[in-house]
Design a protein that fits this description.
InterPro entries: Acyl_CoA_acyltransferase, GNAT_dom. The chain is an alpha+beta fold. The chain contains six helices and seven strands, in the order E-H-H-H-E-E-E-H-E-H-E-E-H. It has a single domain, classed as Aminopeptidase (3-Layer(aba) Sandwich), CATH 3.40.630. Helix content is about 35%, strand content about 30%.
Amino acid sequence: MEINLRPYELSDVDDFMKWSCDDEVISRSRLRHFTSRDDALSYLKQVVIPRPWCRAICLEDGKPIGFIAFNPGSGNDRCRGSISYALGSKYWGKGIVTKAVTMVVSTVFKEFPDVERVQGLVDVENKASQRVLEKAGFQKEGILRKYLILNGKTTDIFVFSLLVTDLMAS
């Protein structure tokens, strides 16, 4: 399945709502349910579009079916950044996110020359997301206990990482 990554636009709001308001997506991510089109439009305008590196995951028709983002560190943390993603549930299990993660990693190591480490944080119960990172070459490093609140419950998180040297070696 061919995919492409592109910046979100305000005109994507209806397609964004189709996948981002999916209860299965919300239950496995930190996304919240949008109560209206204006609410989603405001989120795109104030949160998604201003992010330093956030892309819509699109199929051949160019319509967003998910997102992938990279948040670079700054100051003494500029050697690392974090990757995050979500995808509409009807597209799960097709290798789309693994392909997107692989595309992003090679891009961010070029666009952010100080970055030597990309990390991903995954709920210990989200086996599919863990597998995405493993298939993209990330290594599981450890667990952050009671690290964040996900769907009202304090959750343990696995830390995965990929170093620029790992990517160059493969």
